[in-house]
């Protein structure tokens, strides 16, 4: 006759084996239905471009459906995913805003940027591009700073939402140059750009993939990019640090799932993200847009996110920026 200890141990081992077998089976069969990939901004911006590239190229046996849920600096879409079941069927194209900046900027966050998500992979990073209305009488960063100091609070800068890297880049610029201007948040860049071209707002630190084609067409004027080194996509555009030493604001994009998604499912998604974004035609497309492919393991993304949260909390505090 087995002792109670042996019976308990046997039951525990059997339960553990059942869980392992169930998890393995889940990974083998996943996915059995379409996957919803939430984009926290409107169509046309860098997060949407990346999500649609993944949707077009993914070979998971089920379609990846893009669902644009903009608003509140990306918080609305990210919150939907944070509160979704941890089964791998709802994902989010996270941004530096939704998963690093917003926690410091908003007094009340609807989700925890770390605890409510399972990291999958970094995907890409990019500079923001300081672009101005063509009628603004400045053609360089020094000229812009001089103009702003002579005309305090005369200029307005737009962003696709409070807490985005576009917004915080502007706040960092104000802080580091001792200038003042008014922030005008929109529900997405597609609403801000017509106002920039028309002159209702005068400047913007837009994501390079969105802004560079318009600057090349002459619709707006590019003054500087915000990464430490010039992007190969725009070698003729100086960095902000060339005029404002120490200025750096990189925007990044990464895929996350809700918390508690089984590791085999996360690993399967990670492998597919890496496969898709290593395809030569996808890499060529990203480079043309000014996006730098940056792929990672889930663990590397978690570590990077932790560093970014600390970095941006310091920037937000020093700039005094707050969600309106």
TrEMBL record:
<dbReference type="InterPro" id="IPR042100">
    <property type="entry name" value="Bug_dom1"/>
</dbReference>
<dbReference type="Pfam" id="PF03401">
    <property type="entry name" value="TctC"/>
</dbReference>
<keyword id="KW-0732">Signal</keyword>
<protein>
    <submittedName>
        <fullName>ABC transporter substrate-binding protein</fullName>
    </submittedName>
</protein>
<comment type="similarity">
    <text>Belongs to the UPF0065 (bug) family.</text>
</comment>
<feature type="signal peptide">
    <location>
        <begin position="1"/>
        <end position="27"/>
    </location>
</feature>
<dbReference type="InterPro" id="IPR005064">
    <property type="entry name" value="BUG"/>
</dbReference>
């Amino acid at each position: 006759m087995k002792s109670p200890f042996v019976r308990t141990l046997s039951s525990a081992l059997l339960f553990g084996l059942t869980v392992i077998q169930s998890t393995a089976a889940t990974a083998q069969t996943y996915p059995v239905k379409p996957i919803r990939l939430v984009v926290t901004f409107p169509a046309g911006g860098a997060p949407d471009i990346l999500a649609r590239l993944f949707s077009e190229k993914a070979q998971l046996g089920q379609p990846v459906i893009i669902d644009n849920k903009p608003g509140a600096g990306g918080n609305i879409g990210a919150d939907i995913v944070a509160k979704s079941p941890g089964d791998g069927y709802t994902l989010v194209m996270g941004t530096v805003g939704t998963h690093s900046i917003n926690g410091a900027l908003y007094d009340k966050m609807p989700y925890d940027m770390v605890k409510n998500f399972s990291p999958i992979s970094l995907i890409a990073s990019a500079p923001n591009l300081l672009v101005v209305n063509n009628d603004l009488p400045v053609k360089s960063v020094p000229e812009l700073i001089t103009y702003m100091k002579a005309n305090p609070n005369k200029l307005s800068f737009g962003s696709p939402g409070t807490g985005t890297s576009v917004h915080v880049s502007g706040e960092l610029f104000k802080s580091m140059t001792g200038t003042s201007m008014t922030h005008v948040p929109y529900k997405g860049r597609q609403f801000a750009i017509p106002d920039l071209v028309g002159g209702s707002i005068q400047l913007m630190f837009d994501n390079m993939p969105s802004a560079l084609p318009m600057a090349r067409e002459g619709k707006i004027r590019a003054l500087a990019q915000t990464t430490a080194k010039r992007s190969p996509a725009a070698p003729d555009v100086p960095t902000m640090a060339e005029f404002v030493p120490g200025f750096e604001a990189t925007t990044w994009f990464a895929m996350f799932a809700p918390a508690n998604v089984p590791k085999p499912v996360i690993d399967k998604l990670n492998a597919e993200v890496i496969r898709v974004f290593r395809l030569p035609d996808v890499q060529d497309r990203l480079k043309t847009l000014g996006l730098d492919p940056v792929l990672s393991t889930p663990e590397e993304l978690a570590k990077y996110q932790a560093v970014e949260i600390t970095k941006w909390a310091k920037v937000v505090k020093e700039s005094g920026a707050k969600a309106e």
